[in-house]
User: Fold these one by one.
Assistant:
Number 1:
Amino acid sequence: DAGVTQSPTHLIKTRGQQVTLRCSPKSGHDTVSWYQQALGQGPQFIFQYYEEEERQRGNFPDRFSGHQFPNYSSELNVNALLLGDSALYLCASSLALGAWYEQYFGPGTRLTVT
Amino acid sequence: ILNVEQSPQSLHVQEGDSTNFTCSFPSSNFYALHWYRWETAKSPEALFVMTLNGDEKKKGRISATLNTKEGYSYLYIKGSQPEDSATYLCAFPNDQAGTALIFGKGTTLSVSS
């Protein structure tokens, strides 16, 4: 049973460009969340998708957008990249909504903006 | 703004030492408290999800306790081994649906043989 997968593993982009990151949740999971981990910080919540809808958004600008497909996979898009967007982007899935459900994380996509 | 604090930030111990870390979280509107272990070049992996005051959970040499009234959790590692070297993160769900996990900055443990 494949866990959470993310692609690509690493990415280098230039300021002002746009990027799309992809995530496939663990089999049987329908809820996908995205997190950004900057150096020296814990992961920061970006948004969560459930039933193809964005349920909640963290404190991130509209340059960050996402999508969930009918097969529950998800994309994170970032427009007009800034140097400060350089970070590890983690995707997590869970079996259902509920604070007591553990989240399963992918290995992350390392984005470098130059 | 929900805030989760972890201490110490980093820790270096010798193989065989026992150690513990602290996670502090808001004591109001408590839903659950998650502990994750994150080894270098791997994905964060759930250790425990704790929901009840006084909860104690154990997995091998690792155990955790929970005090929801005062807003803290301890993670204990007994007889540390080099393979325990990792960053240990605690996280606090922001609502009952567990929409967002609010993470601490983590405690990075290094175990020398």
Number 2:
Amino acid sequence: QSALTQPASVSGSPGQSITISCTGTSSDVGGYDFVSWYQQHPGKAPKLLIYDVSERPSGVSTRFSGSKSGSTASLTISGLQAEDEADYYCCSYAGSDSWVFGGGTKLTAL
Amino acid sequence: QVHLVQSGAEVKKPGASVKVSCRASGFTFMDVYIHWVRQAPGQGLEWMGRIIPSSGATSYAQKLQGRLTMAMDTSTSTHYMELSSLRSEDTAVYYCATDGGDHNFDYWGQGTLVTVSS
């Protein structure tokens, strides 16, 4: 199972919107609406931001949104804040009780 | 609320085994699936496997088949992850996480650093 493809890094200025892509195949991202996104600050455990492609858990800011087209999922962060600077990972169910993560994207708030 | 408390850091020699624990609280132990995810230094997240407490059924990542064992102790609400035949590439922080019910990982333990070094 190959890792999903994410850009290594993205950056944006405070107040801007940024989008992180996550590309898989028809066996994972394209085959199921079970894409989730995680935020990880240095030295901390990951935090669930988005599940089922576009659903937000209770307590997660509405500035975070998710979408999917074909085999590519996307995470958009609007109104970028300094505290959003972190690593972001996508994850997809890949069938047969298996899951696959993306390689991760480092977000820098300029 | 949900808490997953993991055991402390470990240092192991190549070829040895390591067993990491994950004590759960704040939910009905038998109702919630548990995943294990690891992260090598400076690297991304890697899904390792999942256990269904009500049946004990497990599912492991293909690359870890034969070396990975997940188990649990219902009397202490504790999950265990054991990895054998350790090699340097297994050096990582190991996390347990609850399955949110929709193929996601909604609560995470604090992580356990396992270092494999001769």
